[in-house]
Specification:
single chain; 145 residues; mainly alpha; Globin-like; 6 helices; binds protoporphyrin IX containing FE
């Protein structure tokens, strides 16, 4: 991501901050409507989850400029997600639902092509780093000969 793209993502989080739990709620509603098969993975309290998701999204965005901090945070998050039975293909489902919820919350004026592209990159970087964290925590068993 370029410094300008990091600024765009940070700026939208700053604007959305008071409404981030609502954005999280809209995101989960979209995800469950579009992919009902992931619903059973969510066994905890949904109100607590949307607050945690909002805080985590905010914190991740803040760490992007400190790349080592970003990798530590997202790697650990990805490790926990492997324990929640989250698989690589789920990240694409979340991508669509989250970006749509963010676009709706920011509104057509703010969701410029540049902002949308910056968020796509931020999400992809986060998802890749989470999947790396998940892969490293679950080494493949050595195949038997
Ligand atoms: C940018 C990507 C994501 C972020 C920031 C994120 C954030 C979070 C956070 C903060 C939690 C609370 C627990 C914890 O901190 O470990 C959580 C739980 C969870 N997430 Fe994610 N997540 C992401 C992607 C995904 C994906 C792709 C899935 C797949 C469907 C998923 C499914 C879950 C599930 C099943 C839980 C446990 C919920 C429960 O206990 O009811 N997440 N997520």
């Amino acid at each position: 991501m370029t410094p300008e793209q990091i600024d765009l993502v940070t700026a939208s989080v700053t604007v959305l901050r008071p409404r981030l739990p609502e954005v999280a709620d809209a995101f989960y509603r979209r995800l469950f409507a579009e992919h009902p098969e992931v619903r059973p993975l969510f066994t905890g309290d949904q109100d607590r989850l949307r607050l945690k998701f909002a805080d985590e999204l905010d914190a991740i965005v803040q760490t992007i400029p400190d790349f080592a901090g970003f990798l530590d945070r997202t790697g650990a998050l990805g490790t926990r997600h492997a324990e929640y039975q989250v698989r690589a293909e789920h990240y694409a489902h979340v991508r669509t639902a989250l970006l749509a919820a963010l676009a709706e919350a920011v509104g057509p004026q703010g969701w410029t092509p540049e902002t949308a592209a910056a968020w796509r990159l931020a999400y992809d970087m986060t998802a890749e780093a989470m999947m790396l964290g998940a892969a490293h925590s679950h080494p493949r068993p050595t195949p038997r000969r």
